[in-house]
């Protein structure tokens, strides 16, 4: 059902340019309703007012975008929000919600001209108690998602928006191919703190409340935005080339208690968990140094750090740019268990955040790189043998393909989060074994430097590999990225799959 909330558009002035509606999709094969056409988002200025004791937050966003056609109307991705008002370039605009497609449809009072910037301001209310599942999960309409997108944190919350739930927090063009800068303005009681992507620009106190302003210097994908409210201790360190390392760890674990089985296996207790989380965060500078050396590339953003929250965070970690997010109980694990995953999310700052997938079919560019360099790090640190780990991955590869499809052409959107990790890493290793270490390093650097700050496709990576190597690697990479069967691993004829 389509709900009409406002219809106050003014008539188009005589002689004004005619326009047409922007597409209500970015054309993503795996999530066809996701994203929008007709404009390129440049900046989002987002405000949240957090109050204890209620799950609702008064919110607003101002999106600055550039029209890529003459626009008579356009859409943004939006779900689970109560929209109060919409203006375009300061003038009231007509709008309506299309819940079935998770769209906010906007008709400005005047046609927006191709090539010109425009501003959309949306005042809305979000409810952190609302947790709608994407349609591709196939759940009944009233059944919440198995993932918690407004993740629990002691005295607050943290966001989990991958792959397509950022528009639960902010009406936006929620496709990884349209990156933008973000500013977050968050007002909280003065006994709480805020962490977010980017650099803390200001903190002001007024009438018992604090207002934090964070902003990113670089454009980032919507699916990895992060805002968290809670009780945090700030750890400040310095990485290579003077890079600021600013991490946020919990002051306490709130009502979280360490399970007895975890205590027996790892020695983690309620009394020592915070100190162990802090020790893990303090390993971040050396991890950044290791990865810069491995890639031969400086860190891509203005700062970095880790964020630990007091829940399990859906039993995952997320590469939120400039501040990777982890459940604090995970960070408390021994280094051989948690450090490789910390490096995994660090790799994503390059592949996934600085270079983003154009569509979700390109997710292997994120996860394949993260798993590959995670394996290298584990080997360098003596936690595991590289070839043994990759051989085990190879044994599992066919099972992943049978379940989710090949990494660059997944069977459905359900495989986006987990279905490309092992096959993507093995594709990179197969390339490495085919062209050798030096050429592989040149391909990686050239691909990153060419597409940094932009989005890239699988075809872009294959073209880069061909150009840099001087070889036609298309058949080999196509077999690894699009094949239903696990190809033989170059140089390792004895490796076998288990299915």
UniProtKB/TrEMBL annotation:
Residues 282-380 form the Peptidase M1 membrane alanine aminopeptidase domain. The keyword Signal applies. It holds the Pfam family Peptidase_M1_N. It catalyses: Release of an N-terminal amino acid, Xaa-|-Yaa- from a peptide, amide or arylamide. Xaa is preferably Ala, but may be most amino acids including Pro (slow action). When a terminal hydrophobic residue is followed by a prolyl residue, the two may be released as an intact Xaa-Pro dipeptide. Keywords: Aminopeptidase, Hydrolase, Metal-binding, Metalloprotease, Protease, Signal, Zinc. Residues 1-16 form the signal peptide. Its EC number is 3.4.11.2. Its cofactor is Zn(2+). GO terms for molecular function: aminopeptidase activity. Residues 43-221 form the Aminopeptidase N-like N-terminal domain. It is an enzyme of class 3 (hydrolase). Belongs to the peptidase M1 family. This is Aminopeptidase N.
């Amino acid at each position: 059902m389509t709900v009409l909330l406002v219809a106050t558009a003014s008539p188009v002035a005589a002689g004004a340019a005619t326009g047409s509606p922007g597409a209500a999709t970015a054309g993503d094969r795996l999530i066809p309703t996701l994203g929008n056409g007709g404009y390129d988002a440049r900046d989002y200025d987002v405000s949240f007012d957090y109050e204890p004791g209620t799950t609702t937050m008064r919110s607003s966003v101002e999106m600055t975008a550039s029209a890529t056609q003459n626009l008579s109307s356009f859409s943004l991705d939006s779900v689970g929000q109560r929209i109060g008002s919409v203006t375009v370039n300061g003038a009231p605009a007509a709008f309506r919600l299309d819940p079935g497609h998770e769209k906010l449809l906007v008709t400005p009072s005047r046609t927006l001209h191709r090539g010109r910037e425009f501003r959309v301001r949306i005042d809305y209310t979000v409810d952190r108690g609302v947790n709608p599942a994407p349609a591709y999960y196939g759940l009944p309409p009233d059944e919440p998602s198995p993932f918690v997108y407004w993740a629990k944190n002691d005295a607050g919350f943290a966001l989990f928006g991958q792959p397509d739930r950022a528009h639960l927090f902010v009406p936006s063009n929620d496709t990884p191919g349209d990156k933008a800068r973000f500013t977050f303005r968050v007002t909280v009681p003065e006994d709480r703190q805020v962490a977010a992507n980017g650099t803390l620009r200001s903190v002001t106190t007024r009438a018992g409340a604090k207002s934090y302003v964070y902003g990113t210097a670089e454009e980032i994908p919507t699916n990895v935005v992060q805002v968290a409210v809670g009780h945090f201790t700030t750890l400040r360190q310095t990485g290579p080339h003077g890079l600021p390392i600013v991490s946020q760890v919990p002051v306490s674990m709130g009502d979280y208690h360490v399970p007895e089985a975890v205590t027996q296996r790892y020695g983690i207790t309620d009394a020592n968990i915070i100190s162990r989380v802090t020790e893990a965060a303090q390993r971040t500078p050396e991890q950044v140094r290791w990865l810069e050396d491995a890639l031969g590339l400086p860190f891509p953003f203005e700062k970095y750090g880790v964020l630990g929250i007091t829940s399990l965070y859906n039993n995952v970690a997320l590469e939120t740019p400039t501040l990777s997010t982890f459940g604090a109980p995970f960070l408390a694990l021994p280094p051989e268990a948690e450090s490789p995953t910390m490096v995994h999310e660090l790799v994503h700052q390059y592949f996934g955040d600085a270079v983003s997938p154009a569509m979700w079919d390109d997710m292997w560019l994120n996860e394949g790189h993260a798993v590959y360099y995670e394996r290298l790090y584990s080997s360098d640190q003596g936690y595991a043998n590289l070839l043994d780990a990759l051989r085990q991955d190879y044994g599992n590869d066919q099972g992943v393909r049978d379940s989710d499809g090949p990494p660059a052409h997944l069977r459905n959107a359900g495989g986006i989060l987990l279905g490309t990790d092992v096959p993507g890493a093995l594709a990179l290793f197969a390339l490495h074994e085919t062209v050798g270490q030096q050429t592989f390093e040149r391909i990686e650097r050239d691909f990153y430097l060419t597409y940094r700050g932009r989005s890239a496709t699988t075809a872009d990576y294959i073209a880069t590999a061909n150009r840099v190597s001087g070889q036609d690697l298309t058949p080999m990479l196509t077999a690894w990225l699009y094949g239903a069967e696990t190809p033989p691993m170059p140089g390792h004829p004895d490796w076998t799959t288990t299915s």
